[in-house]
Design a protein that fits this description.
The chain is mostly helical and about 270 residues long. The protein is built from 11 helices and no strands. Keywords: Membrane, Transmembrane, Transmembrane helix.
Amino acid sequence: MNLVVVAVSSLIVLVAAQAVTYVIARRLGRYNVVDVTWGLGFVLVALVAALAGDGSAIRELVMLALVGVWGLRLSLHLYRRTAGKGEDPRYAALLDRHGHRPGVAIRRIFLPQGLAQWVISLPIQISATSDATAGAGWLVLGLGVLVWTVGVIFETVGDHQLEAFRADPRNRGTVMDRGLWAWSRHPNYFGDCCVWWGIWLVAASSWPGPLTVLAPMAMTYVLVYGTGARLLERTMSERPGYRDYQRRTAYFFPMPPRRRGTARSGQGRPS
């Protein structure tokens, strides 16, 4: 029964957060502010789960810390990246296709994001209502923290490297292929993927946490094939030098970079 309380409370909080975000977006005249609340929504769910859940207090605190650090960093990064900027081309194109009425934005942008947050956060919700971690479960929990750490490092360093690259006028019109970006064309998305598999492993340290595996699988699909890497590849493919970058650099999972003029099988085009 406590799971129902946590799940319903999380859904209410997410709907409220999306409603507030919509009001702010209307006042600012741009909908990309919804990206800033992506990470914050999960932090709110983790907080609700920790307060309302009746599961292991230690695991609740671990989960709250992991989600809090990841979500707050991501939201701050996206706020800094979008503040004072115009509308995101993705949302502009979506509204051009379906209309600019308020109801369209709610149905096409804010409602889907809120529902996605609720589904993907199921490991957080169920972890807060599961039995205490015991025995080999502690190894699973520790592995989850390790995978999460790798993910946060990749995401944070990748974002920082790209931000520094874009800030240098000498790099205008060129392709970022240094640092982590020489090992993966999307190191930040790879890091995000690791974060969610790490969170799932923490939840999987006690039954029925393993049953929530569809959540990180869904997140991985979105990052690799949905609105993440694949969509970005489409917009970048015509940029000078990007085709060569695709041939030299792994698509998603980091691999040693290839020398210029050589190709990796299957990496010559977006996957």
